[in-house]
């Protein structure tokens, strides 16, 4: 007030000050009101700020709490029957190869039958669900397991798998998943639309002008809402601003999937998976594959662009992250003990298998872990190490040739 008062009584400079004041006020108005408002209009999707909408309703929660609690005690782990009918939705660039490797080993050791790709060494399809043309089958073939890339569609999945099949998926923090896809499909596979991106900071270029690079058909993109594409989310959800519609769809998915793993909490996910499937701890041991971590130079604006660019993936991820933590909370305290124990055991097994590979003097040694409250006796030899480190294409071929001997070259 004092400032305005001085302006009024400041005589001849009075008019200049007023003009100055009006300009300052106009600039402030523009910055704080008009700019955010126009941003909002350009991007209706930012309207959805409140992620609490992506929690699930009480009745679903209640049912789940009870279905999980009924098998939560690991002390009963050897009593329950292990689940052998399983469909794992292999989502792109989300640590899904490690899960595939676990499932392939599980099925191999029990002589189970897999739905296997007919057209490519390890992909059933990048743009379709399961159909007669993309899987290997013969007239009386039956299947137990699925863990190669294919688009989710409940109807198609249930057509080829037994009625009691359990569905499992995985998601990853959307930005990391995106960055990993850009580099992997640009450099490893030279996917044309990504190959056109400049080599210096391709991530930034793609985010700045997605329409210049992104394919028209969403199934052809590895970098736009790819996790949602893999989960078979309908196209209309990409264009809706109705968050209820998205939520309803995610709730439906949640009723179909027994568990969606979270890449960022991988060992917790694996233990939850083990418990839900009544598998043995030995069955879920894995050896980490080298995975490169790219750190592109990007700023807050780029991050924001990505949230618009792959909006549905954020909904999907946030939704299943909540569901995941709820399931973890429903486990007893022993859950975290089991995770901690698993980390130690897994790392020791990994060291053993790596040493086994490097050092021929190690041959025929066996890694042993005595029975305890987490598992019966475990013995790991060279053959098991080989299965654990076998790459996806070789493992898929190994399964294919056992299931369909006439396809062996
Ligand atoms: C949640 O749903 C269950 C079963 O429908 C019901 O028994 C329970 O009282 C509900 N809880 C709340 C907080 O509404
Ligand atoms: C899926 O991709 C394959 C090969 O890239 C192509 O031949 C096929 O037409 C595509 N299918 C659909 C439904 O777009």
From TrEMBL:
Any GO MF annotation of the entry: galactosylceramide sulfotransferase activity
TM stretches of this protein: 18-37
GO cellular component terms attached to this protein's record: Golgi membrane
Main location: Golgi
Entry keyword set: Glycoprotein, Golgi apparatus, Membrane, Signal-anchor, Transferase, Transmembrane, Transmembrane helix
Signal peptide start and end residues: none
Pfam families: Gal-3-0_sulfotr
GO biological process: glycolipid biosynthetic process
Superkingdom of this protein's organism: Eukaryota
Subcellular location(s) of the protein: Golgi apparatus membrane
Keyword Lipid biosynthesis: no
Protein's membrane topology: Single-pass type II membrane protein
PANTHER family, per database record: GALACTOSE-3-O-SULFOTRANSFERASE (PTHR14647), PUTATIVE-RELATED (PTHR14647:SF87)
Protein family membership: Belongs to the galactose-3-O-sulfotransferase family.
Full protein name: Galactose-3-O-sulfotransferase 3
Source organism per UniProt: Magallana gigas (Pacific oyster)
């Amino acid at each position: 007030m004092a400032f305005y008062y001085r302006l009024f009584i400041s005589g001849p400079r009075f008019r200049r000050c007023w003009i100055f004041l009006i300009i300052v006020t106009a600039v402030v108005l523009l910055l704080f009101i008009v700019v955010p408002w126009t941003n909002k209009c350009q991007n209706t999707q930012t309207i959805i700020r409140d992620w609490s909408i992506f929690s699930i309703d009480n009745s679903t929660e209640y049912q789940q709490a009870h279905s999980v609690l009924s098998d939560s005690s690991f002390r009963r782990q050897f009593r329950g029957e292990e689940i052998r009918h399983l469909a794992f939705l292999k989502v792109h660039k989300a640590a899904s190869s490690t899960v595939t490797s676990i499932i392939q080993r599980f099925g191999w050791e029990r002589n189970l039958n897999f739905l296997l790709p007919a057209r490519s060494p390890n992909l059933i399809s990048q743009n379709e669900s399961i159909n007669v043309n993309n899987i290997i089958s013969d007239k009386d073939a039956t299947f137990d397991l699925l863990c190669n890339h294919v688009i989710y569609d409940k109807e198609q999945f249930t057509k080829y798998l037994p009625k009691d099949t359990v569905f499992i998926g995985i998601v990853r923090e959307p930005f990391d998943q995106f960055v990993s896809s850009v580099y992997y499909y640009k450099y490893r596979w030279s996917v044309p639309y990504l190959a056109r991106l400049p080599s210096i900071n391709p991530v930034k270029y793609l985010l700045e002008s997605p329409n210049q690079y992104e394919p028209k058909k969403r199934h052809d993109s590895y970098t736009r809402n790819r996790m949602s594409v893999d989960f078979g989310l309908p196209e209309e959800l990409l264009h809706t601003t109705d968050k209820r519609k998205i939520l309803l769809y995610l709730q439906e998915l949640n009723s179909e999937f027994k568990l969606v793993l979270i890449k960022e909490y991988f060992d917790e996910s694996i233990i939850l998976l083990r418990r839900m499937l009544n598998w043995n701890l030995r069955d879920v041991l894995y050896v980490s594959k080298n995975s490169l971590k790219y750190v592109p130079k990007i700023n807050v604006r780029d991050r924001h662009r990505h949230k618009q660019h792959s909006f549905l993936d954020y909904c999907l991820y946030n939704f299943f992250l909540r569901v995941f933590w709820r399931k973890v909370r429903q486990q007893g305290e022993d859950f975290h003990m089991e995770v901690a124990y698993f980390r130690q055991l897994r790392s020791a097994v990994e060291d053993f298998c790596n040493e086994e590979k490097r050092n021929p003097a190690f041959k025929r040694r066996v890694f042993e872990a005595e029975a305890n409250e987490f598992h019966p006796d475990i013995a790991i030899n060279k053959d098991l190490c080989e299965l654990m480190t076998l790459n996806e294409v070789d493992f898929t071929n190994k399964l294919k040739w056992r299931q369909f001997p006439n396809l062996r070259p």
